[in-house]
Every structure is written in structure tokens, then in C-alpha cells.
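My current task is to audit a protein record that another person submitted. What it holds is a sequence and that sequence's fold in C-alpha cell form. Thanks in advance; the entry in question is below.
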Amino acid sequence: MKRSLLAAGGIVGVSALLLSACASEPASEDGPVTITYSNFTSAGGNEDNLQTIVDAFEAENPTITVDITTLPYGDYFTTLQTDLAAGTVADVVDTNYDFFPQLASSGSLAPLEVTNPESYRESLIDAYAVDGTSYGLPSSFSDVVLYYNADLFDTAGLDYPTSDWTWADEQAAADALTDSASGTWGDHQPVSFYEFYKVLDQNGASFLSDDRTSVAFNTPAGIEAAEWLTDKSGTVMPTIEEGQGTADFDTNLFLEGKLGMMHSGIWVFGALADAPFTWDIAVEPGNTQQASAVFSNAVGVSAASDHIAEATAFAEFLTSSQTMIDVRLDSGWELPPTSDEDQLAVYLTKDTPANRQAVFDSLDSIALTPLVENGQQEMQDIVTEELIEAQAGRKSVADALASAEERINAVIG
């Protein structure tokens, strides 16, 4: 998972506004120019979809060429920070809600004169504004769902997951689907910060105290949530030694027909388009309640760019053009940030997965990313490190959470 969480308030309330025309081609005093775009959002199966959008932009703007660099999500932000320090940052860069405040406060992003603000979902465009000025344009939003291999369920004689499943239902199915003789695993859920805060919510627990100055997860409910993640390893999902946790491990295993269920975002629809079996999705199960993670991504224009007008025109096209909407809806590459409700309704009529309604049903109860003023990335890294220690059997879950509590409170308190 990968992407940054939106606040709940404006995700579901959509205005039915017609999409405005894209920004007109900017004038360039120097003739043809090349702008650079560094991204992570197309990595892992959507590179061709991004190229389709870029090709359309270049056709409408023949004096502008876009040079694309695509990096895996795990490498992207480290590389971006290095480029910022070295003064080699691209003209247009991907960001997300978690990292955006750091970019905006550092002066790294140029203020944007947005020609069509009404075409964006209001909650999304507002998320990337500072004091009423846009410093980023939302490019997509998405959520996490439960994928399942319907063929494996049929072979095992199991009922498919439904929207009212609980952890117990998922565990029972995972146990039944796991077959060591054939190398088939029942379930996969990443062991990470992004999964932990969500399963805490699913178990009625909280990550942070109300004043956000200390953690609140070191409780019996928090330990139970951490065990839900870590106890899968070696029982119903592969271990770290078997490759679990590496990039795209779950998607590849699912495509091989060796994984019954996986928790992942809707951004992998495209990667599963040619799967040689029937698959579908459902709302993620909870324990005491349901809670789904909802994320958004955005693009910004570098304040150091020599071509801010051209870069801004590309940023608008990439985030609000009809081409972008069509490509995203056709491929299932996350959801476009459009305010046009009719455009999103078309999404439900697409083919696989059949139960696309689960994408919107997941928005009914969402888990918010815990954010702190200082030490956000360090907090996230500590949680993942400690949970992996527990997953690997080097610590008990109770000891891992106690250590995470002590380390994080020292950073954020």
C-alpha cells in the first residue's frame, strides 16, 4: 500500500459538475521544450497507461515533450529527497498526502494557477492547498480491498467472501485454502505500518492518543490486531525467508494461482487483467467493525523548474483531462479525481472485477492515517521494523509493541 490517506469528510460527497476543458497549450518563448516527470504511481503494471496519457498531451501540445522516469514506490521518496538536495529534481513530481506537507513547507513546490479547479473532487484538491493556494493537483484516489481467486474457492468448496465477513471468516477460508503440497497459500496481508493502523481500527483500537503526542496501540486490542498480521506468516502466507515482503510478491503469487486471498489496493486491477482464472474483490473484513484504507496521490511542479508554465499545463492534463479519466476507468488504475459523478458511475459497468461496487462500499467506513507534526516517517518506519521483528519470531508481539511505543513516544512527544 502504498498510498496516502484522505480525511473522511469529503470522499463520498461528490458534486455532479461537468469536466472542464483542459488547459490550453502554454506559449513558450524558447520554442520546443522538454519537461521531466518523476513518478511512482505507474510502477508495477501501469506504465503503458501513463504513456497513453502523455502521448495524448504531446499530441495536443506539440511544442512540449515529456521525459518520464518511473520508480518503485519503495525507492521513490528517498530518491526524491536526494534530488531535492542535489538540485536535480524533475519539473513535475509525484507526491502523496503524507509527504506533501514536507514538500510544500520546504518551498520545493511552485504555487499553481489552476484553470479548472471545479473539475476536481473538492476534498481532494483542497488536500493539496496551503492557505487557499494549490501547490499540488490530485491525480487519483483509491482504497484497499480483499482480492480472492474464485477458482480456488470453487475447488475448495468455499463460499466467496462477502461484505459482512469478519476476521474469523477470513481465517477459516485461509486455513482451508492453504495447501503446502501444492505450494498454495490461503492469504496475504503486508506486515507494515499501513496495514497496522487499519487493523487497529478494525479491532476498535487507536494508533495515537487524542492529542497525537503519544501512541495508544500498546493495549490488548492492539496486540490482538498485531497478531492478526504477524501470525499469518508461515501459516497461511509465506514467510520473509520465502520472499514475503518483497516488491509485488503478493501480486505475482496471486497471478500464478498460488494465493487464495490478498489485501491490496485497486491499483493492481490492471496487473491482474490477464489472470488465467476468475477473480473478484470484496470489502475487507473487520473484527469488531469494518475499516478500509483510502489513499490519494498528487503531482506538483518544482519551484526550481525552468518551464513552470509547461509543467503546470502537463500537471493539469495528467490530473483532469478526459484522456486521463478514460484511461483510469478503463484500466482500473485507481480512480480519477473528477467531480463528475456520472463519469464514476461508468466505472461500475466495467468488466473484471465484477464486484466493483466493493470499491465504493469500502468508503463507508475508513481508517484514517495517523499523522503527527514531527517524526512522521520515523514513526512509520519504527512500526514496520518492530512488526517485522515479531513476524520473524525474533520478538513476541507484546515486546515488539512495547518497544515501538517507547521509541515512537521519544520521537513525537
Remarks:
- The two ends are 27 Å apart (CA to CA).
